[in-house]
Amino acid sequence: MTTSQPLKFEAPDAGEETARADLYGLLATLLYAPPSQQLLDTIGSAGREGDGLLEKAWAELSAACKDSRAEAVRDEYESVFIGVGKPDVMLYGSYYLSGFLMEKPLAALRADLARLGLARDDTMPETEDHVAYLCEVMRYLIASDDALHANLTTQKAFFADHLQPWVLQMCDAILDHPKTPFYSSVAKLARAFFEVEMQAFDMA
């Protein structure tokens, strides 16, 4: 799977499921690698009105993109998520679930991915528990025409097993970092969206 395909921003009246898939795809793109200036400009021009937490978080991200340059965002990404030695903020589920990388949570994830008929692209250096990869899986489970695997029951189970136990902790780690002027807005949007997803799955 890959996060490099061009993003498509839907009109405000797009279906809820399309909007969910698009937002998972956007988060995957922003968290997998620093965004290009073109993507920053696109998000910066895609303002949205509304009083809900998700709408406010989107408006804050849009404003941050409008005011950001790709070079500065790249420096921030590399400093916080890559760094020298251990990154300041980890983007891998296994770290939050077990305290280490390449541990049992990753093995369980790989088993579930195999049951879904999914596998990591050999060109992707990150392991499957990277948050961007997991967001891409969720996007697939929402948008795919595969009736056997892409359904609400599978979405709920995958999210509950592989994102819900740790992803808010990751968002808080980004928000608590003193040098994330851009990625704090990404984390706010991600946190608001994941909380909405949790509430919706609880009611499903």
From TrEMBL:
Name the UniProt key words of this record, in alphabetical order.
Answer: Chaperone
Extract the SUPFAM superfamilies matched here: TorD-like
Where does the secretion signal sit in this chain?
none
In Swiss-Prot or TrEMBL terms, this protein is called: Chaperone TorD involved in molybdoenzyme TorA maturation
InterPro entries per UniProt:
DMSO/NO3_reduct_chaperone (IPR020945), TorD-like_sf (IPR036411), TorD/DmsD_chaperones (IPR050289)
Give the source species.
Answer: Noviherbaspirillum humi
